[in-house]
Amino acid sequence: MTGRQCFIYAAVQDSAKQAALEDRGAQVIYLPNAAGKVDLAAMLKDLGRRGINELHVEAGHKLNGSMVREGLVDELLVYLAPRLLGSGLGMTNWGPLTALADGLQLQFESVEMVGSDLRVIARVEGRDNF
After folding, report:
1. Inter-residue contact 44 to 72 (CB < 8 Å)
2. Which of 10, 26, 31, 99 has the fewest CB within 10 Å, making it most exposed?
3. Which pLDDT does position 126 carry in this prediction?
4. Radius of gyration of the chain from its Cα atoms, rounded to whole angstroms
């Protein structure tokens, strides 16, 4: 490791994996929720207690959806490439939504070109304070 702290959050204890990670300098923290997954809200609170007040999450549609569904997202940073690839998975999976009003209301903060990609920063309305 490079001297930086590394925190790994898990829901299920595995002594062998924990020992291997700790041997490399990581700190393993167990925070299971009732469904047997990592308690994301508790994880963010724990990071805050450690002085970490900004977290960037690069994830798939399941974790993105969980973060949005649990109200833990205040800003989205989205890069859009000028290429359609056909059917695939969405950016988040947090439905089903039954009405347009069930969607997540965003406010665009900035839109700019980065090379041939489009970079969008959007704030989630009403999430100025946690």
Report:
1. yes
2. 99
3. 84
4. 18
